[in-house]
Design goal:
By secondary structure, the protein is mainly beta. The protein is about 10% helix and about 50% strand. It has a single domain, classed as Porin (Beta Barrel), CATH 2.40.160.10. Strands 1-3-4-5-6-7-8-11-12-13-14-15-16-17-18-19 form a 16-stranded antiparallel β-barrel. Strand 11 and strand 12 form a beta hairpin.
């Protein structure tokens, strides 16, 4: 009887807290077998970074403050399911890698939502217009990461020390972000003693999206500063992208086009990327997903490079939250040699390969399971 009374008292004390606040634990578990070859290196492993999306665990909540105003927070950490270790975050940030995907607090009301912390920049959501869905195995992610673009569903589109404003009206939504980066004091360049301003890693971006019925479309812009400590240069990288998708019922078609100018801070280093994709419902709720990406890197000096990637995946849904999947991704590096790749900062300069040897195609086969909670 005493235990029942104690439980009742504890429940009464806790009830007001949960009546005012709504806290949710959520996450994604994604694990797969992979085999193939990456730039000539054979591999076979259990992997979590190139499936249908990175594993993560998060906590989000909100408190009703009255008069239509709410306090909102989110903490989200990525991890590798094969080792259980956290995914590393921004290399320029100090301390342990905790909540490296997102971490912010904010206010939300009729004016929209204003958040402060670490955010996914507008370019992260380009995956909504990519056939495979922005996973590590997707054609668009493979190309954009290789070429150094930040409008991509990976680490380059997660910005620390930032403020983000978002809102919506009917079928239109928008967001704008400013990031001060992690270097908030001036530093001295060791080569010549020049002072590098603390604002030289600032960045900003914005996006607008339209979604109504079967049609959706977006436009995105990123502006990323590079300081003079960067190996390639100190120009500002400017990127823009457009994307559109239309669901015909029997097939959902989508595509993107984006440009990057002065990429990685190097003057006149320009990148153009276009992608087409499709999601085809098969056998009920299951899906066949396709994506093809073609790019052109036009460096400041020398011949252009045109990498291209093709991805295909099949998703078999066991429930609304769990599915099995399998697929294949191939990347063709357009006869790029290891020497030229190192010169363009696309591959490590100490790879150990003959500089005149061509970089072999990457071929990845994967088979896995994804569960969401």
């Amino acid at each position: 009887m005493k235990k029942l009374v104690a439980l009742a008292v504890a429940g009464a004390l806790a009830a007001p807290v949960y009546a005012q606040s709504n806290i949710q634990l959520y996450g994604v578990l994604d694990a797969n077998f992979q085999y193939g070859d990456s730039m000539g290196n054979d591999f076979f492993m259990i992997n979590s970074t190139s499936g249908t999306g990175g594993p993560r665990i998060g906590v989000r909540g909100e408190e009703d403050l009255g008069s239509g105003l709410k306090a909102v927070f989110l903490l989200e950490q990525g991890f590798n399911i094969d080792t259980g270790k956290s995914v590393e975050g921004d290399s320029s940030a100090q301390g342990n890698d905790v909540f490296t995907r997102q971490a912010y607090a904010d206010l939300k009301g009729s004016f929209g939502q204003l958040t402060l912390g670490r955010h996914q920049a507008p370019g992260y959501y380009i995956y909504e217009f990519e056939g495979i869905g922005g996973s590590g195995a997707s054609a668009l992610v493979q190309i954009n990461n290789f070429l150094g673009l930040t409008i991509s569903t990976r680490e380059k589109a997660r910005w620390s020390n930032s403020a983000l404003y978002s809102g919506s009206y009917q079928s239109v939504s928008w967001s704008a972000i400013y990031s001060a980066g992690n270097n908030e004091v001036d530093v001295i360049r060791p080569t010549d003693g020049k002072r590098i301003d603390h604002s030289d890693d600032d960045r900003f971006g914005f996006s607008v999206k339209y979604a109504s019925g079967p049609l959706s479309a977006t436009a995105i812009y990123h502006n990323v500063k590079y300081n003079a400590l960067n190996a390639l240069g100190d120009e500002t990288q400017k990127e823009w992208a457009i994307g559109a998708a239309y669901d015909f019922g029997m097939v959902k078609l989508m595509g993107t086009y984006q440009q990057g100018r002065d990429v990685l801070g190097q003057k006149d280093r320009d990148v153009d990327v276009w992608q087409i994709g499709a999601i085809i419902p098969v056998f009920g709720t299951n899906q066949l997903r396709l994506s093809y990406t073609h790019s052109e890197l036009d460096p400041a000096h020398g011949k252009s490079v045109d990498p291209q990637t093709f991805s295909i995946a099949y998703l078999h849904f066991l429930s609304k939250r769990t599915f099995l999947y399998g697929g294949y991704t191939q990347t063709d590096y357009d006869d790029l040699t290891w020497g030229r790749g190192a010169q363009l900062a696309l591959v490590p300069s100490n790879s150990g390969y003959d500089v005149n040897k061509k970089i072999e195609d990457t071929n990845i086969f994967f088979l896995g399971i994804r569960h969401m909670f």
